[in-house]
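Figure S7 source data.
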Amino acid sequence: MKTYLKILSTGICVPEKILTNQDLEKMVDTSDEWIVTRTGVRERRISDKGVSTSDLGAAAARMALKNAGMTAEELDLIMVATASGDHLFPSTACIIQEKLGAKRATAFDISAACSGFLYCLTVAHSLLNIGAFRNALIIGAETLSKITDYKDRSTCVLFGDGAGAMLVTLGKGKKGIFASHLGSDGSLSCLLNLPAGGSRMPATVETVEQDLHYIKMNGNGLFKVAVRAMEEAAVKTLEKVKITSEDIDLLIPHQANIRIITSLRKRLDIEEEKVYVNIERYGNTSAASIPIAYHEARLQGRIDENSIVLMVAFGGGITWGGVLVKG
Ligand code: ACO
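Tokens for the predicted acetyl coenzyme *A complex:
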């Protein structure tokens, strides 16, 4: 992409309720020591009953709008990345549009699991580039706790809830998003899925009794492909603009597992200080993980207007993606 997608502002929303490893020790056969050493997670945020993905997404969006000094009426496009949307349809983006009162906006969701936010940024970049829209609100939002089986120790220790939003517009200067690479491999869709509730296996009493409306995951299988997919995403994104990992000031990886992040960092030969990690506080928030991390890194002064930031993700599908930002 020859143009820069300028980041006007960001916002986040995480539920107040914290589920610690000690809480989980009382729910399943696990230990704080196992969870911390195998995943890096210490605690995660959990939304209350009755709170849905659109509630968190709308709150993050309101913060981003406030930070940019913009009104919802100025939005032309709303895109939401989520794997735990309010419904199969309508889209969570349409629900957030209504909540914000963004009457002029076109709204839709993108389904790419944890890579969804980077998919959205890349699609938004293309749409803004051809002049279809001007101001876009990109949201990654999840309430994974609603589709997590708290009897299954291999998944329930990993996931958490949250949302991050980013306001973007086509920039005139050389600041913002300037390169990306996306990829998918549907042959590995069995590694992570939600079996029931769609047209393949409509919800029935039996599917509920068999817990098929919860996330099912082959953790070992995913781990191996995750590192490979994220490395490929990173390398191919860097190649597009002929820079190397040495040029990166901050790496923002999808926060799935600290061991995946460390393996990726080593393969890319990036120093530990140049990697943003918050997995210990939020766990894996899927599509929300990168926008939450980017927002926090900005607030903490770890990104200035000349920083080269590489965001890289992988997720169910499987999908992967990399996006480069200046500033
Ligand atoms: N507490 C204690 N023991 C556990 C737990 C737990 N919470 N979970 C699993 N174990 C046990 C297993 O039963 C197994 O016991 P066994 O040897 O007696 O059979 C043992 O620990 C080792 O299990 P592994 O699955 O080999 O553990 P591993 O080191 O691979 O860690 C994990 C599992 C953390 C799930 C890891 O594979 C992983 O993070 N994979 C990637 C998952 C991921 O990123 N998913 C999301 C990607 S896409 C998205 O973000 C939506």
